[in-house]
Amino acid sequence: MMFLNQILIQLHEANRYASAENPHFRRLAVVLLDNTIELQLRRKAEFLFFSDFTNWITGVRKYDARVRRDVFRYYPRLTNLALSEGWITEDDVRLLNYSHRVRNCFYHEGGYDSLDAEMAIRFLYRFIKSHVPQWRSSGLTMLSSRDPYNIAAASDEPTGTAPLLISPEPGDADPWEVTTEEYWQKAIDHVLTYQGSGDVRELIEKKIISLIDEIESKLDFVECDGEGLDFNAVLSHRFSVLSDVFFREELAGRKISHNAALNIYLASLDEEERLLDIPDAAARAKEFHRILNDHQFQKCPLTRQQLNGYRSEANAIASHTEADGIEGFLRIEERLHSVRRALSELASDLDGYNQLCIDLARGK
Q1: Which of 57, 208, 217, 350 has a CA-to-CA distance to 68 between 20 and 30 Å?
Q2: Same domain, yes or no, for 210 and 287?
Q3: Domain that holds residue 308
Q4: Residues 338, 275: one domain?
């Protein structure tokens, strides 16, 4: 009963949080829902490995020590095992991996995004309602002799093993009912009542458009506020500890455009932390210049035409499946990751430089 109660109580609480307006509660809903599925898959894997062993009759076991270790360490390995065993589909893998990524951001970073939260909740609800009644507790269920508790009052039950009632009255229910798929279907339908509105594919489209809008806004700022500006001054402000080259270029009157500056951010951001740990200034500068020299500079790292192309992809999401839509979003996000980060850092540094110039002009 312990595992059964763990699942139902966790889902009961997740539903309460998912139904809330407060983003802190909805963040917790994603964490609880994702964890429920991870535990279910883990228990199925444990049972699989328990029955997969080396002996004189069948020979060497199917799954070796490395596979077993990695399945319990890395979530994608767990979902891939579930796929290979036929427990879930390829679409399930894509949606579960996306939802787990959302969970990781919410749980480990304390982040929150309303679109991510809604999509993850909807995906996880659907998955749980489809699979968990069949899987049940993913193992043996030990019946309890304790008096039943209504699930709404389960917090007052001290052992965690008392049978949970999903209806107001116990009636004459057979205690073995809790082991049946019918009981689990009824129980999960009872506790998971949240229903979002609208097509999830519309949310995916909004997610992509939001990403593009954010990038385009940064690009507008850099182009407009940086019009006619020598970006050597901005670069010197950021990278002077790595090299004085931009200060020297500014003194020499050799201006640098925002596109050239963006290339320098693209080249150096991934290595910046490592460079800052080099104690010798000359060695630090030498390594910085090597990184810049190795970078393939682009005349225009990001164009409006590229962004419009991604907008067109977003508008076509409605004609695809949800799993294809999520895959499309992740693909676009990956393609734009480096330039999005570089542009964001450049825009932030430009804003800081502009504020510094304003303060100096005011005599501050």
Answers
A1: 57
A2: yes
A3: 200-361
A4: yes
